[in-house]
Each structure stands twice: as C-alpha cells, then as structure tokens.
Write a structure and sequence with these properties.
Its cofactor is L-ascorbate; Fe(2+). It catalyses: jasmonate + 2-oxoglutarate + O2 = (1R,2R)-12-hydroxyjasmonate + succinate + CO2. InterPro entries: DIOX_N, IPNS-like_FE2OG_OXY, IPNS-like_sf, Oxoglu/Fe-dep_dioxygenase_dom, Plant_2OG-oxidoreductases. The protein is an alpha+beta fold. It has a single domain, classed as Jelly Rolls. It contains 10 helices and 17 strands. The strands form 4 sheets. It has an 8-stranded mixed beta sheet with strand order 4-5-13-10-15-8-7-6. The protein has a 4-stranded antiparallel beta sheet with strand order 9-14-11-12, with no helix packed on it. A 3-stranded antiparallel beta sheet has the order 1-2-3. Strand 11 and strand 12 form a beta hairpin.
Length: 411
C-alpha cells in the first residue's frame, strides 16, 4: 500500500455547509481518533440565478479558502485537491537551484531591442516560436514599483479572513477574491487563492471592488496598471514588426485604444502534499499577451516544452511574457511548495471583448488558411471561466480537421 492510499484509508475529510455563509470542515484520523474542526467563511450559497452569459450567480459548491486549509494543520490532504497520477508534478521544489545546463526561457533586453539590436529582435521571434515565453529586462517599469505591488498583495492575503471575504467573487463577474476557476461540480481544484480586477476598458474599472487594505494598495495598483498597459503597447509593436506587419497593426487589430486589461493575483499557500497537487492546472491563457510578475524568491511556474515541463528560473525584476495566441500558445502550470508561500501577478493585455479574433489577412493564403473560425474574445474566455483550466483542449477543439500542429507554424 502506498502512502497516499494509507492516508485515504486512515483519514477522512468532510466538508459540509451548516449556514449560508459558513462551512464546517472536519478532519478525522481513524488511528488516533483526533478530530480537527475549523469554520471557514464562504460565498453565500443561494439560488443559482444565471446571467446573460449562462454563468451562475453563485458557485456550485461551498467555497473553502485554500489558505485556511493550509493554516489548519491538516492531518490529511483533501481528495478535492488530489490530481490524477498523470497530472501530478514529477518533482517538487523547496529550495530550487537550477542545474548549470538547465533549459530556461530566453531573456530579452528591451532597451537594447528598441535601440535597434537585431539580435534581440530575432531572440524574441525564436522565443515566441519555440517557447511562447520569454523574460524581459530593462522594460521601463521601476523595480521599486514591482516590489511594492507584490508585497502589497502578500499583505492582503495575510489579512484576517473576514477582511478578505468582503470582496468574495462569483462566477458571474469573476472579479474579486476567489478560490476556484470553473463551475463544474465535483471538479478537482487547484491549490491557490486569487484576486481578479479590471483596468480597461475604464467602464469596468471599479475601485470599490479593489481591496482597501493595505492602505496604499489601490494607489499602487492604479500606477502599476498604467505602467503595464504602456509595456503591453511596446510589446505589441515588437511582435507586430516581427511578424512582418506594420508596428501598429496588431494594436489596431486588438481595438486600438479600446483594448482590455485585467489582472489576476495568485496566492499559493504552503502545501503539505505538493507531490499530489498543483497550484494551477495546465492551461494556455485566453488573451493576447500576459505580463507576469513572478515571485523571484520561490519558483513555481513551469512551461511545457515538447514532452517536458521546464521550471522557469525568474530573474530579479524581470517580467515573464507569455505570447498566447500570437506565435506559439504554450501550456503552463504552477507547482506548489511545502515550506514556502508564493505570490505572482499576472497582467492580461487583451483584445477588445467584442472584436472577432482572426488572423491578419497578410498572414493567410490558400496554402495556409486560417486555423480557427473567428470568435470574439468574450466567447473564447467564457470556456475557461466555466470549465476551468484544461490544457489546450478548447483551442484544439476548434482546429480545422485539415490541419494539425505538425503543419501549421503558429498553433
């Protein structure tokens, strides 16, 4: 009998709702008959009214905050977070030290690139084709702002649970404090809590939905958002030019000044069984460009490269750029740590929500027709909000049967 089976046989975890705003979590170990109880506040479970997109107003099950689980000294690991054997990480990390010859995603100096360095321009093209990821340094965002933003969110997640529950989210808008993605009942969940907020378009930006503690977080996030929108615009020029298009063409295709911008702050608590769980399941981001500020003290992001998962070694004060639908859209996931928490900020620079997403006419021909049918960004991202992260299954389900990843250069 392996250790996991032994745990399952010797222990039970039961989670039941006893009121509309609390859940009782009881852990019982059959060997020592000790019981552990904890009340964890959850989103109010009411009638499952749906909005116009078909998303429920409430989550299908009581929401248990992962941070509360992590801090409760569990004697067993809940089944709802145990991934199937094929999805579990092969290795776990505590104090990660990359091997001298380990593969890492390319690093691009934006100052050098915008000064006309052709090597950096080619490095971006190769990175997008080979990985769908690269790191940028000398990007124009102040290191002090990056550090302050990350630290403010670390302080938020370490507030008392009652202060955070004020901002609990729902499937309807996704905005606010959350602990799951997808509305499938009985789904295997990821070991993370998060906070999601909007920057653009401006009519979606509601500071009242941003946390008020710590006291400087709204001001910090406002400045951070402005700086990352500027960085997104610069990166769009690079990617557009590298595709052989005019610098402004991709930006115009995204909606010009009417782009979307939002952010998900990820909090990965310590995990007692990191070999069984994932902080974030394999997925490819639905938007245009993701600008990720990782935790440069604790690794966790992994990128699929062929049949291998590469652990990304982040550089201090570098952003990790995920090119998503431009060039190569790569799967990535997050592993968790038994001794260290981890915080990352994923900023999404997206197309205008109602613009049909389709290839530039200059990039298609009779021998290389569009790989996917046109759809709006709203239609596309609805999948991950309802189904949760599921690799590239949604993307691949729309591929024309005449084409496969082997004969299409950018899939």
């Amino acid at each position: 009998m392996n250790h996991e089976d032994e745990i399952k046989n010797n222990s039970e975890v039961t989670i039941k709702a006893d009121t509309t705003d609390k859940v009782e979590m009881k852990t019982k170990n059959k060997n020592d008959l000790k019981e552990q109880e904890q009340e964890v506040k959850i989103d109010n479970i009411g009638d499952q009214d749906k909005n116009k997109n078909g998303l429920d107003e409430k989550w299908p099950e009581p929401i248990v905050r992962v941070q509360s689980l992590a801090e409760s000294n569990l004697t067993t690991f809940p089944d709802s977070y145990i991934k199937p054997p094929s999805q579990r990480p092969q290795t776990t990390t505590v104090n990660y030290q990359p091997e001298p010859d380990a593969i890492n995603i390319p690093v691009v100096d934006l100052d050098s690139l915008f000064s006309g360095n052709e090597d950096d321009k080619e490095r971006v093209s190769e990175a997008c084709r080979e990985f769908g990821f690269f790191q940028v340094i000398n990007h124009g965002v102040k290191p002090e702002l990056m550090d302050a933003a990350r630290e403010a969110w670390r302080m938020f997640f370490n507030l008392p649970i009652e202060a955070k529950e004020v901002y609990s989210n729902s499937p309807k808008t996704y905005e606010g404090y959350g602990s799951r993605l997808g509305v499938e009942k009985g789904a295997i969940l990821d070991w993370n809590d998060y906070y999601f907020l909007h920057f653009l378009p401006l009519f979606l930006k509601d500071l009242n939905k941003w946390p008020s503690l710590p006291s400087n977080i709204r001001e910090l996030m406002d400045e951070y958002g402005e700086e990352l929108v500027k960085l997104g615009e610069r990166l769009m020029k690079v990617l557009s030019s590298n595709l052989g298009l005019k610098e402004e063409q991709l930006q115009e295709a995204f909606g010009g000044e009417d782009v979307g911008a939002c952010m998900r702050v990820n909090y990965y608590p310590k995990c007692p069984r990191p070999e069984l769980a994932l902080g974030l399941s394999p997925h490819s981001d639905p938007g245009g460009i993701t600008i990720l500020l990782p935790d440069d003290q604790v690794v966790g992001l992994q990128v699929r490269h062929g049949d291998t998962w590469i652990t990304v070694n982040p550089l201090p004060h570098a952003f990790i750029i995920i090119s998503n639908s431009i060039y190569k859209s790569s799967e990535h996931r997050v592993i968790v740590n038994s001794q260290k928490e981890r915080v990352s900020l994923a900023f999404f620079y997206n197309p205008k929500s109602d613009i049909p997403i389709q290839p530039m006419q200059q990039l298609v021909s009779s021998s290389n027709p569009p790989l996917y049918p046109p759809m709006t960004f709203d239609q596309y991202r609805l999948f991950i909000r309802t189904q949760g992260p599921r690799g590239k299954s949604y993307v691949e389900s729309h591929v024309s049967p005449r084409y496969t990843s082997e004969n299409v250069p950018f899939s």
